Amino acid sequence: MNGAGLCADRVAVVTGAGRGLGRSYAEALAAEGARVIVNDIDQAAADEVVAAIVATGGEAVANSDDITSREAAGGIVAQALERFGGLHAVINNAGICRDRMFVSLSESEWDDVVRVHLKGHYCLSSQACAYWRGESKADRTPQGRIVNTSSGAGLQGSVGQSNYSAAKAGIAALTLVQAAELGRYGITANALAPSARTAMTTQVEIFAERMKVPEDGSFDYYHPGNIAPLVVWLASEQSGHVSGQVFEVEGGKIILGDGWRRGPEVDNGARWEPAAVGSAVERLLRDATPPLPVYGAA
C-alpha cells in the first residue's frame, strides 16, 4: 500500500486517534500510503485502530504517550524515527471538554482544557520541529507538515466553553506564528475548525440532535470521515505552498477562514478626551461589518 497514494511513504503522527476524527484521519492517511503513529491515551483504542489499518494492508503502530509532556512527546517522535525511519506530518487532534459557564468554571477545568489542547499542540510540534530543523540544516528538505485543530468556538466563541474557546483561539494564533517562523525549514502549519460528530459533540444535547446519523440513508453531513480528505492533502507534499491558513470544514464544505482584519478607524490627530471617545466608538460600530454571533448566544 505504501508505494502509492497521496502520502506514499510519508510518516504521520495523529493524536487522539483512537476514535472519532482522529481515527478517521489515521485510517485515511494510511489508505493514501502513509505510515501512521496512532496516538491515544487509551491504549486499547489505539491498538484497535492499528489493527484495522493493518487489516487493510496499511502500516501503523500504536502509541499512548502523554502529549502534554514535552519529554513524552519526544518519545512519540523517536518512535516514528525508530519504527519508520522518518517523520513528515503531525496531526494535532487530541482534545477534551470541561464545559461550564464562566462564573462556575473551576481552575482545574480551565487548566485541564488549556493543557490538553494548547500545550498538547506545543509539545508534539516542538519536538517534531526540532527534528525537521535538524534535517533542514543537514540539507535534507524535510517537507514537514503541522496540521492543528482549532474550532468554530475558537474563531467566534461559544457560550459555556470559555476554556475551550480560549484554547482553540490560541491554537489559531499559534498556527499563524508557526507558519511565519518555520517556512525557512521547509515546514508548513495550517489549522482546521472541523464540524463533525465526535464523542465531545455528542455530550452536548443540541449538537447531538443536530449531528445525528440520518435515518433515510442520505449524505451523512457530520460524519468525521468528511474532514479527513483535507487532512490527508495538508499532510502531503502537494500542500507545500499553503501555510498559515485556517480552514472550517463540515460535510462537503471547505471554507477558508478570513481571520482578524482591521476594520473602520477614526483618527483624532491628537490625544482623545475621554468624553469624546464614546461617539467615536459608536461611529466605528455603525460602520463595521457585524461579527458572527457567539455560539449559543441568545
Overall morphology = globular
The CATH architecture category equals: 3-Layer(aba) Sandwich
Tell how many strands the DSSP assignment holds: 8
The total number of structural domains is 1
Share of helix, binned: 40-55%
Strand count, sense and barrel status of the largest sheet are:
8 strands, mixed
Any idea of the CATH topology? Rossmann fold
Q: Please state the oligomeric state of the protein chains shown.
A: single chain
Radius of gyration: 21 Å
Low-confidence stretches: none
Q: State the name of the first-level CATH class.
A: Alpha Beta
CATH-level-4 superfamily name: NAD(P)-binding Rossmann-like Domain
* Mean pLDDT value: 94
Structural classification = alpha/beta
User: What is the strand arrangement across the widest sheet?
Assistant: 3-2-1-4-5-6-7-8
- What is the beta-strand fraction? 5-15%
Number of helices: 9
SSE sequence, one letter per element:
EHEHEHEHEHHEHHEEH
The rounded distance between the terminal residues' Cα atoms is: 51 Å
